[in-house]
Amino acid sequence: MATEGKGVAIEAEAEAVKEMNVMVAVDQSESSFYALQWALENLFRRKGAAVETEEVGMVTVVHVQQPFHNYVLPAGPGIYATSTVIESVRKAQEQNSSVILSRALRLCKDKMVKAETLILDGDPKEMICQAAEQMHVDLLLVGSRGLSKLKRAFLGSVSDYCAHHAKCPILIVKPPEEKLSRESST
Fold first, then answer.
1. 167 near 128, Cβ under 8 Å?
2. Is 121 helix (H, G, I), strand (E, B) or coil?
3. What are the φ/ψ torsions at residue 123 (nearest 5 degrees)?
4. Paired strand residues for 65
5. Among 15-19, 62-66, 88-92, 173-177, whose mean pLDDT is lowest?
6. Does the 19-185 domain belong in CATH 3.40.50.620?
7. Helix (H, G, I), strand (E, B) or coil at 112
8. Backbone angles phi, psi at 140, to 5 degrees
9. Which helix (H) or strand (E) holds 67?
10. Which of 35, 115, 130, 167 could bridge across to 108 with cysteines, CB 3.0–4.6 Å?
């Protein structure tokens, strides 16, 4: 009888994972993909023969494109950015988003976790918090690039902003030191 109770507990735990609405924010940084990998390995996979082969849960992978401001800017003496230039910048942003989300979906597929993607336009820190609130996310995961205090002060930190403004629990996943130092040197 003790083993029956344990089996029910494992099934209940797997069922709780299935119901969890998790959002992971990704960008081109390796630290954001480390956060996604961490989520896939620690939140969606359970040890044990019975559960290991099942799909357990779904993740929403969100990427935010920086807004392209349609200002008329001089591109040289008497030359201004045209609608063709603006359109090519937008197309490049869309291609970049597609590459980022394709990589994220491949990671999810490799771990047998269902995933959906979301591309937003705007300030990443504000849009991530807004999307998490609108989608009633149970947990928001973001990576941490390990910016110095000075860089955080000037550039801002998406993870820091989300930690203070998200209306749901947030997990900031920091990569191991060797990954941080490799990424900051590039």
1. no
2. strand
3. -75, 120
4. 121
5. 15-19
6. yes
7. coil
8. -110, 130
9. none
10. 115
Q: Going by DSSP bridges, is the β-strand pair 74-76/79-80 parallel, antiparallel, or unpaired?
A: antiparallel
**Rounded to whole angstroms, what are the CA distances from 5 to 8, 10, 45?**
5, 9, 21
Least confident of 61-70, 100-109, 126-135: 61-70
At residue 61, the 3 state secondary structure works out as strand
Q: Using 50, 70 and 90 to split pLDDT, how confident is the model at 76?
A: low
When mean pLDDT is compared across 75-79, 80-84, 138-142, 151-155, the lowest value belongs to 151-155
Q: List strand residue ranges (DSSP E) for the chain, in order.
A: 21-25, 58-65, 74-76, 79-80, 114-121, 139-143, 170-173
pLDDT digits (tens, 9 = 90+) for 113-143: 999 999 999 999 999 999 999 999 999 999 9
Question: pTM to 2 decimals?
Answer: 0.74
Residue 8 to residue 5: CA distance in whole angstroms: 5
Helix (H) / strand (E) element for 15: namely helix 2-19
Domain boundaries, the chain: 19-185
What's the chain's average pLDDT?
78
Total number of residues shown for the chain: 186
